[in-house]
Amino acid sequence: MQNDEIRKALQKTSRATRTERMGKIISFSCIALIVVVVAAIFWFVASRGIATFTENGVNLWQFLSKTAWAPGTTDASGVPKTGALPMIVGSFGVTFLSALIATPFAIGAALFMTEIAPKRGGKILQPVIDLLVGIPSVVYGFVGLTVVVPAIRHIFGGTGFGILAGMFVLFVMILPTVTSMTIEAIKAVPRRYREASLALGATRWQTIYKVVLRAATPGIMTGIVFGMARAFGEALAVQMVIGNAALMPHNLISPASTLTSVLTSGIGNTVMGSLENNALWSLALLLLLMSLAFNLIVRWIGKRGEMK
Amino acid sequence: MNAKRADKIATAIIDVVAGIIVLILASLLGYILFRGVPQISWHFLTSPAKAFEKGGGIAYQLFNSFYLLFLSMLISVPIALGAGIYLSEYARKNWITEVVRTSIEILSSLPSVVVGLFGFLIFVLQWHLGFSILSGALALTVFNLPLLTRNVEDALHQVAFTQREAGLALGLSRWETVTRVVIPEALPGIISGMVLGAGRVFGEAAALIYTAGQSAPALDFTNWNPMSISSPLSPFRPAETLAVHIWKINSEGIQPDAAAVSAGASAVLIIVVLLFNFGARYLGKLLHKKMTAA
User: Fold this and answer.
1) DSSP, res A203
2) Which of B32, B111, B214 sits opposite A143 (nearest CB)?
């Protein structure tokens, strides 16, 4: 009788085992929730975005290559005007241009902080970078609207709205991202590389240019791609300065639009399920796929960098 | 002596680049504060916005921003803690962990406007929450989760493994070791990460314009019944936040003093975000001092 009770007590799962099991279940369900959310985002945006092509019968190639965007109206042959090329060009335009200017600045700042003046750099430049990250994007948009746009209007004429203004705003926005990743990449270059180069009689710049930057290239590229992903997905700051005209941009200072700017200004003014609305969801899907593509590029660079 | 000259020129260029970046930030902050701070007054902070006339304030928007922040942190912090614990303590090296890490990476790089549209589709339309604080808080949770999770995981990783061994050797289960030993040790890191995340959420607008809405209905600050629609605590009312307000009056506002209002609101926004950033650092240090022997 007593033996039975002891055996029972020993064979029963202990309190610790139970809390352990419960804790594991709780923490796993949190993780599972995140995965489900990601899957849901893809599922819902994709199912909406594809409707343009399946339900409304828009040709995918025409969607990507035509330049007339007015999904509510049809052209002479009765086909809805769903040419997304102006937005695609706008998005890629501001992204590449801003990355193009941000890169030398980011590399310069990173070199200053790692190779030239690590002490002063850490004291002055690091807080500057941290603060730039913290500034909300609408504030960048507001400054762009009240400073950059009038300045461009003054210097180049026109309205001032356009890809050039978007580029300037995005340049400042992605600068901290690219810089901090470049710093990490340069810091990861082993010290002995520098020592070997300096011992051979190379100057500091030769060491930086021929050794450090070469060894850090994969990391720097990753930083640039991350910055581009951020620029591509930025909505409000760009929308405030780009002019929001769904036209092919003729030059850098004519009003243009990006995928994100058309989305933010359009989705509230269309009826769910209509062609106008579906076409906007197709743009959102395009945005989603591009963000995925940037992710894949980062992974690919990481893998290639590893092999060395 | 060409190489030496190139070295000098390159160094000078790098110095100039670093100087330009400092100058950009200084002029940016200077511009916003110089233009915005004179607009800030007690009246500006405590009176409601006006759609057509001068002299509107940001009272409701400011309150909405903080309330939304509070609600979204209330939802996202427990989830991020659980997820971070799983990744740092339980996750094995297998394909499931790989899938999880990839999804978190993808989620963290998604444009916030896509998160907002997803929120619009699911929370606002599918779940019939409408443009409401709750929809906004859920969208912000989606937006904020990957960063919070990574922050929790990193903070837990910083704790020495010997601490866990000590806990396990005392007969604690792994879960108890984590909650009683590892988390207290990692708390300063976790909290400063949360405060930084809060700053990010406070300035976010793109994820909110189609979830929390773009209107700020009048609030009755004497009515604290959360179920009443005019109560400040009601999670089912539409709530334009400060960041959304700035965007709204700049893109379609018709107030005659739109520029002044947005300058003032931008300054308030920046000051709050900066306070969060400094607060994160200070709080982390303080907690570390209080809670550890160091």
Assistant:
1) -
2) B32
Residues 180-209 of A with CB under 8 A from B: 202-206, 208-209
Secondary structure in 3-state letters for chain B = CHHHHHHHHHHHHHHHHHHHHHHHHHHHHHHHHHHHHHHCCHHHHHCCCCCCCCCCCCHHHHHHHHHHHHHHHHHHHHHHHHHHHHHHHHCCCCHHHHHHHHHHHHHHHCCHHHHHHHHHHHHHHHCCCCCCHHHHHHHHHHHHHHHHHHHHHHHHHHCCHHHHHHHHHCCCCHHHHHHHHHHHHHHHHHHHHHHHHHHHHHHCCCCCCCCCCCCCCCCCCCCCCCCCCCCCCCCCCCCCCHHHHHHHHHHCCCCCCHHHHHHHHHHHHHHHHHHHHHHHHHHHHHHHHHHCCC
**Whole-model pTM?**
0.90
Q: What is the DSSP string of A3-39?
A: HHHHHHHHHSPPHHHHHHHHHHHHHHHHHHHHHHHHH
The two tokens of residue A142 are 């507001």
Assess if residue B191 is contained within a domain: yes
pLDDT in tens, chain B (294 residues): 688 899 999 999 999 999 999 999 899 999 999 998 888 888 888 888 877 777 778 888 999 999 999 999 999 999 999 999 999 989 888 899 999 999 999 999 899 999 999 999 999 988 998 899 999 999 999 999 999 999 999 999 999 999 999 989 998 888 989 988 899 889 888 988 898 889 889 999 999 998 988 888 887 777 777 777 778 888 888 889 999 999 988 877 677 778 888 899 999 999 998 888 888 888 888 887 877 665
Q: Which of B6, B18, B32 lies closest to A112 in CB terms?
A: B18
What is the domain count for chain B?
1
> Can you give the CATH number for the domain in which B184 is found?
1.10.3720.10
Determine the structural domain holding residue B174 and report its residue range.
40-291
- Tell me if chain A has a CB within 8 Å of the CB of B13: yes
Q: Report if residue B8 sits inside a domain.
A: no
**Contact B3/A206, CB-based, under 8 Å?**
yes
Give domain status of residue B190, yes or no: yes
Report yes or no on B47 lying in a domain: yes
